[in-house]
Design a protein that fits this description.
Layout lengths: L1 E2 L5 E5 L2 E5 L8 E7 L4 E7 L4 E5 L6 E9 L2 E9 L3
Antiparallel strand pairs: 1-2, 2-3, 3-6, 4-5, 4-7, 7-8
């Protein structure tokens, strides 16, 4: 997993996407997850300095794009999720 300059780490394990906000003093995030066709799979607000996670039970194994906007920083990462 790669921590970018915003201090947010995004990774996946099996069918779950994780976003670690532990290094953020203030979290007011919008977390959007898209498939590679650009269709939105998830869009949630998140406000804690901890680890967000979202499981996808009904998807084929595929890459998804995770877009995190926290305050004015946008972090985007492509991760692979496996089918359960």
């Amino acid at each position: 997993s790669i921590t970018d300059k915003s201090g947010i780490t995004i990774w996946s394990n099996d069918n779950t996407v994780y976003v670690d906000f532990g290094k953020q003093p203030k979290v007011e995030a919008q977390i959007e997850i898209y498939n590679v066709l650009g269709q939105q799979l998830s869009n949630e607000k998140y406000g804690r300095s901890s680890v967000y996670h979202r499981a996808f039970n009904n998807l084929e194994a595929a890459y998804v794009i995770v877009r995190v906007k926290n305050n004015d920083d946008i972090t985007t990462k492509k991760v692979f999720i496996g089918a359960k």
